[in-house]
Structures are given as structure tokens and as C-alpha cells.
Amino acid sequence: MTLRRDIVTSAIGILVLTLFCGILYPLVITGISQVAFPGNADGQMVYVNGKLVGSKIIGQNFALQVVKHGKPVVDKSGNPVTVPDPRYFQTRPSATAPPNNAAATTFSNLGPNNVATEQAISANINAYLALEKPYDPGLTTAKAPVDAANSSASGIDPDISVANADIQAHRIAAVRHLPMSTVLRLISQYTTGRGLGFSGEPGVDVFELNLALDRMTSGRG
What pTM was computed for the model? Predict the structure, then answer.
């Protein structure tokens, strides 16, 4: 009799907790968030001419597909091999595969003295210099910003530092045939302040900035 009572009590407890924690509570929180913070609740999606083009809080890979002998090149895992599109500001290095893959956010989890970490940082800096130095001849390894060398914790960080954006501005101005002052003004326009006014550093929203560039130049380089 005791065993039967325990089974019934457990079953009722499971049913009640499932209804409350699995259905009622999520519905209430979703409803409140939709009313109070509809943009945030829906992932801060961005639409252009009615078409979904991305999210304000997820970095994108502004790149060109590598094509060889008329065929797209893929790596050993089947992911497309890409190179940075010089027309656009680039996000910081991403540890996901492919880069900025929101379905597989990750970080290296390796210590600062790990050989793999040193190799990754060196490769990131070399790639950064290869892309930016032709437009900014004075750029050196010592002047490369930290966020051009290290990936973010999530691997899909949408922001870069102001210092990083200012360096990339040389390339953007040259490729898009824009005055440097215009590009710097756009950077300033899409720079966000410190969190709560004191936490962290100002960041530049790469996605919104690139959309603004496309609106200004009709996407042409």
C-alpha cells in the first residue's frame, strides 16, 4: 500500500512539475519578454527589404568563397574555404567551424602558453597584416589590436574594438572609394559605449556598420 502511494505521489509530482516548469513557466516568461522586449526575445533579427539578413548579436563571416577550376573549395570537414571580402569590415577571429557559426559556439579552452594557442594567435595576426597592410603600410605586428589576434569566448562576437575598426577603415576607404573621414564617421555612428557606462570597452557593431556601407555605396566596391 505504501509503495503504491509513493508511486502515485511521484507520478503526480512529475506531472505537476512538468506542467509548471516545462509548459506554464516558459509560456509566461515568453509572453512577458514578447511584450516588454520583443526585439531581444526574437534574437534581434535584422531585415532588409523584408529579407532576413542576420542578427545584431551574432557575428557574420563577411567572406568570399574560394573557387578553383570552377568549383567551390571545401576543407576536410566539408566546410567552404573562404577569404575575407575586402569590401567589408571583418569581425574578430572565430574559433567555430565554419567561422561565426551560431549553431556551434565555442572557444579554444587552451591556456595562453599552449603551443596551439601561440600558433593560432600568430596565424591570426599574419592574416590580419596580409589583409590590412597593403592599405596601411605602417601597420606592424606590435600595432595589431588584441581582438585581431584572439577569438572571443563565444566565437561569434559581433563587435570589434574601435582601434581595430580604425585600422580596417584604410582598406574600406580605398576599396569603396570613400573619403577616410566618411568611413571614420560611420565607425563612430555604430560604436556602442561601455556596458552600464563603466564595464568593458566601447565596441563597433560590424554587422550594422557593413549594412550602412552597402546602403551608402549600393554594395559596390
Answer: 0.77
